[in-house]
Amino acid sequence: MTRTAYVRPYRPADEAALADICVRTADNGGDSTHLYPDPGLMPALFAAPYAHLEPELAFVLDDGSGRAVGYVLGTADTRGFAQAFRELWLPRVTERFPEPEGGPGTLAEAMTALLYRPERMILPELEGHPAHLHIDLLPPWQRKGYGRELMGAFLGALRHQGVPAVHLSMLTANTPARAFYDRLGFEAIDVPDPGPLTYLGRSTEGVEPVGWAGSGGRARERARTAGSEG
Q1: 228/119 Cα distance (integer angstroms)
Q2: Which tens digit of pLDDT belongs to each residue from 14-37?
Q3: Contact at 8 Å (CB) between 62 and 33?
Q4: Phi and psi (nearest 5°) for 15?
Q5: CA 147 to CA 25: how far, in whole Å?
């Protein structure tokens, strides 16, 4: 049987796959394995806390065999998420990733320091876009329309919750990602001194609030859950 990739809600069993996708796309869209001694660092920053704190806004691209090969995840309320990150998520990872003492001397130390600054997510220029997101796909699954499907699921879920707008940050040097976001209607948000980042945002207006992948995706998910597809 030919298996068809489809978008579905995140499941706890996807946790390891999410971490792997994050690691393999965290170096400006490429594999970051060589950059961090502990491969769990980037997932602890940019994937796992979202799946843990707001799983209802986590969606994956399933390759048709049950394996997640891409994801979109985020929060409906950045300010509230930053607080939950500090109070609920940070205690889960401090033993594995102790706060660096003094100024960071390596890239890993600099990224570890970000764990202890969740309030960095809160910028006054982004108040009109209270939600934010992260989206990543493994390279073989890129440029095939799946990113648009994932984004549609996430935006639909935000719309269903009544969230008016969403933002994201990206490395300015990642020009292919910028072209993707431009096609999806994201526009630049002026943030003073953004460093290597560009901030983009868009409204959820006009997005059908289907909650996730639409009727076809829901039907496939029900079939798999029922065990009707081998």
Answers
A1: 46
A2: 999 999 999 999 988 888 999 999
A3: no
A4: -55, -50
A5: 14
